[in-house]
C-alpha cells in the first residue's frame, strides 16, 4: 500500500475522532447523570447553550480558555436549573428535560443573534515536532487537538471512577436505590445534583467543541440533533464509558465516510447517505448489547423516578 | 438477667415519672409504698455505680402530615439486654427506630447515649456512636456485590479486598456464612439479611436495632439468627427487637415495651406473659381467635385439580416444579408448607396463569382444563388470587385503592358496562371492602403504597373475597401482619370456606397452617408431598417433610395409617 493511501486513511481517522468528540463528551456527561438515577433529556439544549457561550466568550475576550470555561459554566447553569426543578421541586424528569432542550434552543438563538457570521481562530492541534511528522501514526496519535485527548482521558477517568472509586460506588448505589441509600445515610439529592452538574459541564464542553473547533462559527441549532444521538449512545452502550466512546467513534467515522462518498458523486440520494451514521450506530450498538443480564446489572434501576426523602 | 430487668424498670420509673411526669409511667408507680421502695432501690443502684443505660429516649415526639407517629415516647435500654418493641402495624415502631438511627429527626424530645445527651443527625452519626440497624425492607443494592453493599453502609474506609476478607471472617464467626463476591440479586432473602447483619457486626455495634427480622426467614434461618443474637447479647451488645411473632419474643427478649397508636401503653417481661396477653396489650381489646362457625368440614367437589404438573422455572435461579399433584375441594382449606424458595413462587405462577403450562390438562379449575389459559380466563372460571408480593403484584403501588379494586373486580362486580367505567360502582365496591375488612386508611382515594403491610393485605384479600370466588389461592396471607389483623384474615378465610369455597393457602408459618388448614402438604425442592389431614399431623412431621425427608415421613404415615 502506498504511503499516500496510508496518509489518507490516517487523515480519515483523525477526522473521525474529531467528529466524535462532541458526541463522546455529551454521552459521557449524560452517562454520569444517568448512573445517579436522573434522566436529563436536555442534552441538546445544554450543548447549544454551551456552544453559544463559548463562541461569545471567545469573540469578546479573544481567549479560547475563557470560551471553554464559559461553555462549562453555561452548561452547568442549565443543569442546575434542571436539577433544582427535578430534585427539589420533584417535577417530572422527562418533561423537564424536554423543556430544557426547547429552552436551550431558544436561548442560544437569542444570545447568538449578534454573533452570526463571525469567526474565531480554530483550536491548534498539538504539535510534538518530529513525533507528529511520523507517517500514519504521527497525525493520529500525536497531532490531534487537545480536546480529543481530553475526551480519551475523561473516558478513562469515568471508567475508573465507577469501577474502582468509592465515590463512584456511592453514585451507582444512589442510582440503584435512592431509598436504600438515604436509609443508610447518603445525601441522595446532593449526590444527584452533583452528577447532573457534571453532565451539564460535559454537554457545555461538547457544544464548545462544535462552535470553537469543529466548525469555528455560530449557527443557530448547530448541534443538529447530536444531543439526541448522545442520549441514545448512553443507553445502547449500556452505561459503560468505553462503549459510549466506541459508539461515538463509529458515528463520527460513518459521518465522515458518507461525506466523502457523497463528494465522490456516488449515485445514491444524499438523504439516504446522511441517514447512515444514525442507522449504523444503532444497529451495531444493539448487536453488541444483547446480553440482558449485563444490561440489568449496568442500568441504574431508579432512573427517571422522582425521589422524596420522607416517603 | 432478672436483676438487669429489675433495675431497668426502676430507672425508667423513677427518672421519667419523677422528672417529667410521663403519664404512661406514672401509672405504674401509683402505689405509695411501691414508689417509695423503688426510689430507695434506685438510690442504692446509684451508689453501686451501675453503668448508665445504653440508650434512653425521653418524650420523643414526631408528627407527619395527618399522623401523630410518636407521642412523647420514653424508653430505656440497658447494656446486654434484648428488648422487644411491640405494636400493631402503624403503631409508630418503625418511626421510633428511624429516629434512633438518625434517618428521621424527632420534633421534640431527648436522646441519652450512655447517660450523655446526644443529637443523632444522620445514620453515619448513629453508626459512629455504635448503633447498627437491620431494616425491615432491606437497604441493599441489587446490582452491587455483597462487599460493595457493605462498604456503602459502614463508616470505615478500607480497600474492598481487605473488607471482603473481614466479611468472610466475621460472617463465619457468627454462623452467617456469606460469599463476599456475589451479587445481591442472586441471594435468597435469608442471605440478604445476613448481609445486613454482617454489615452491622463489622462495626462492633453496642446497640443493634432489628426491624421485623424474621418475617422473611424460614424457621431454621430464624433459629440461626437467634443464636447469633444471644451471642451478641452475651458479649454485651444491646438489641432492640421489633417483631409480630410473639412466641419468638417470649423466647428471646427479657423486656418489652408496647406501643399503640404512637403511645407507650406499657412494658413487661414477655417471658412472664402469654402471647395472648401481649397481643391484647398491643391491640387494646380482646383478641379474637379465628374459628369456624360450623362444625366439621363439608367437602364437596374438587375445585382445583393439579395432576403431574412439571414446569421449568422462569427465573434464572428458580426451582423447577416436578410432578406435582394436588386437589382442593369446595369447603376445605388446603395448606402448603415449606421453606421459602422451594418452588412455592413457581407453583403460584403456574396456578395463577402467569406461567402457562404446555400441558393443558395438568391443571383443572371447576373441572375445566386451564393449563394453557391466562390469569383472566382462570378468574372467569371463579378463581381468586392473592399473591405474596403485595406492592407490585397484589396492588399497583401508585394507584388509589378504588382503582386497585377496579383492576381485579371489574368483571365479576360488573364495574364496567359497554366499555365505560362506572365510578359510582367502583367507589361503592372499594368502600365495601374497606368497611367489611376494617382497612385502616383515610379513604378509597389513598394510594396503595401509603397503607401499612397488614392493612393493604386486608384490602387485597377483601377485594378477592367480596368477588365470591369458587376457588381462592392465597400466598403468605399474614406475612408481616400484626396479630389482630392476622386473626381477622384467618377468620375471613374460614368464613369463605364455610360458605363452600375451596381455599389454597401457601405459607411458611406452620402455626397459621395448623390454625386454619384442613389438609396440609409440604413443598421441597420443587416437589410436593402427599396431602394429609391437619388434625392427624404434627408440627414435627411437617418439619421433617420441609427438610425434604419425604420417605421417612411417609413411613410414619404407613405405620400409623395401617
TrEMBL record, chain A:
GO CC, any one term: plasma membrane
Membrane-spanning intervals of the chain: 36-59, 66-90, 96-116, 148-169, 190-212, 218-237, 244-262, 268-288
Protein's UniProt keywords contain Transmembrane: yes
Keywords: Cell membrane, Membrane, Sugar transport, Transmembrane, Transmembrane helix, Transport
Subcellular location field: Cell membrane
GO molecular function: transmembrane transporter activity
Membrane topology: Multi-pass membrane protein
Pfam family, one: BPD_transp_2
PANTHER family, per database record: ABC TRANSPORTER PERMEASE PROTEIN, SUGAR ABC TRANSPORTER INTEGRAL MEMBRANE PROTEIN-RELATED
Name by which UniProt lists this protein: Simple sugar transport system permease protein
Naturally occurring in which organism (per UniProt): Novispirillum itersonii
